[in-house]
Design brief:
alpha/beta, 9-stranded mixed β-sheet, binds FE2/S2 (inorganic) cluster
C-alpha cells in the first residue's frame, strides 16, 4: 500500500506557454485569474525548464495555452524540446497557423497536433468559440495538417449545446485523417463552472452519445481510436484524475509556477514553487503542493479503506473541493461518497433548464 509512496518520474508535462487566446470558449480551463503576458517565462527560461524536465524523466510535453501559437518563439521552444529528446504535442485552436507557420513548427521538430473543435458547422462553432470565421480557419488548418501527414488528435469538447453533432465530429476526424478523437465532456472547474447550467447535458443526451460512441468504436476499429469519458455528473465511479496527484504529471503555468494539475490553484492553502527559484526535480520530489495529496496517507473515509484507492486515487481533488468544500474528501462522483447525491441533483436540475445563454471567456484587451 502506498501510504508513503516512492516518487517515480513524471511522464507528461503540460507547458502553458501563455494565457492569451483569440477564442472565448465558455468552458475555458484556464484559471479565472489569467496571467499577464509581461510575466511569461522567456524563451531561455523555457529552454532551461525543458532540459530539466527531460533530465527528470519526462517523455512528452503538451504545449498549451491559452493559444500557444501566439508565442512568436514557439519554434524555438519546440526545437529546445526536440533537442532534449522530448515528444512534443501542440494543443491548438488552429485559427492562427497558416501553412508556412505549420511547416516552420514541423521543421523545428513538432511531433503531434491536438486540435480542438467547438462544433461541426460555422454557425455553431463560431458562436461557442466567440470568433467569427474561426471554424473556417480551423478547417483550413486541419487540411494542412492532414496534407503534411502530421499525427493528429481531434479534441471534441462536448456539452448540451453541441452533443447532437457528435456523429459529424467523428466524420471530421476521419476526413482529416486523425488517428484519435477525444470525445471530452466539459469539466466544470474555473470558468466552466460559471456556465455549467448552460452546458450540462441531459441524461437522455448522454445515453445517446454513449450509444453512438459504442457503435462507432465497432464500425471504425483500426481507423479511428475513440476515447470517451462519461461526464462526471452522470458517473458513479471517479476517474483517477491526473493518474493520481503527483504520480505522473506536472503542469507549468505561463509564469513558471509548477502545479500537480491545471486547476490546483483553486485549492486554498496550497503553495506552489516556481521554476525561476527552485529546480524542477526539487519541486517534483519535495514541493508541499505535490506532497499534500500524494499517495493515500491523506485520505479520509470512505477512501481510506476503499479497495479501489490505489486505482482511482480518490478521484479529483479540485472537484471534491468544489462540490463538498474539502479537497481531502472523496470525489463526489463516487457512489460511496456521502455527497454523491449532489452530482445527480445538480445534473438533473441544470440540464433541464432552457436558457442556453453563457458568459464568454475574454482575455481583457488591456492584458493582450
Ligand atoms: Fe485538479 Fe482533478 S482537476 S485534481
Amino acid at each position: 500500500m502506498l501510504d508513503k509512496p516512492a516518487i517515480g518520474a513524471p511522464i507528461g508535462m503540460l507547458c502553458e506557454l501563455t494565457h492569451r487566446c483569440p477564442l472565448q470558449c465558455p468552458y475555458c480551463s484556464n484559471p479565472v485569474e489569467l496571467e499577464r503576458p509581461a510575466g511569461e517565462l522567456t524563451t531561455g527560461e523555457w529552454r532551461d525548464v525543458l532540459a530539466q524536465a527531460a533530465a527528470l524523466g519526462v517523455l512528452q510535453i503538451h504545449l498549451s495555452g491559452g493559444e500557444p501559437t501566439l508565442r512568436r518563439d514557439l519554434e524555438e521552444i519546440i526545437k529546445a524540446a526536440a533537442d532534449a529528446g522530448l515528444y512534443t504535442n501542440l494543443i491548438t485552436a488552429g485559427v492562427h497557423v497558416d501553412r508556412a507557420r505549420l511547416k516552420a513548427l514541423l521543421d523545428a521538430g513538432l511531433d503531434h497536433v491536438q486540435l480542438s473543435l467547438q462544433g461541426t458547422d460555422a454557425a455553431t462553432a463560431d458562436r461557442i468559440a466567440g470568433m467569427q470565421g474561426g471554424f473556417e480557419r480551423k478547417m483550413a488548418f486541419a487540411q494542412a495538417v492532414a496534407e503534411e501527414g502530421v499525427p493528429l488528435t481531434v479534441n471534441a469538447v462536448m456539452h448540451r449545446q453541441n452533443l447532437a453533432q457528435l456523429p459529424e465530429m467523428l466524420e471530421i476526424a476521419l476526413k482529416f485523417k486523425a488517428h484519435r478523437i477525444e470525445v471530452a465532456h466539459v469539466q466544470y472547474y474555473g470558468w466552466a463552472l460559471k456556465n455549467r447550467a448552460a452546458l450540462m447535458p441531459t441524461r437522455r443526451q448522454m445515453d445517446k452519445a454513449t450509444e453512438q460512441v459504442t457503435e462507432a468504436r465497432e464500425r471504425l476499429k483500426g481507423r479511428l481510436q475513440i476515447d470517451y469519458v462519461v461526464p462526471d455528473y452522470y458517473a458513479s465511479r471517479p476517474k483517477p484524475c491526473m493518474g493520481g496527484w503527483g504520480r505522473s504529471f506536472l503542469n507549468v503555468t505561463p509564469v513558471g509556477d509548477v502545479l500537480p494539475c491545471h486547476a490546483a490553484q483553486t485549492i486554498p492553502g496550497l503553495t506552489f514553487d516556481n521554476v525561476r527559484d527552485t529546480p524542477l526535480k526539487e519541486i517534483w520530489e519535495t514541493s508541499s503542493a505535490f506532497e499534500t495529496y500524494r499517495g493515500t496517507g491523506w485520505m479520509k473515509a470512505p477512501c481510506r479503506t476503499c479497495p479501489e484507492r490505489e486505482k482511482d486515487w480518490g478521484g479529483c481533488r479540485c472537484q471534491a473541493l468544489m462540490m463538498t468544500g474539502d479537497a481531502a474528501n472523496a470525489d463526489p462522483v463516487c457512489a460511496r461518497s456521502p455527497f454523491h447525491h449532489l452530482m445527480e441533483d445538480t445534473a438533473a436540475g441544470e440540464s433541464e433548464r432552457h436558457d442556453d445563454t453563457f458568459i464568454p471567456r475574454r482575455f481583457a484587451r488591456s492584458d493582450a
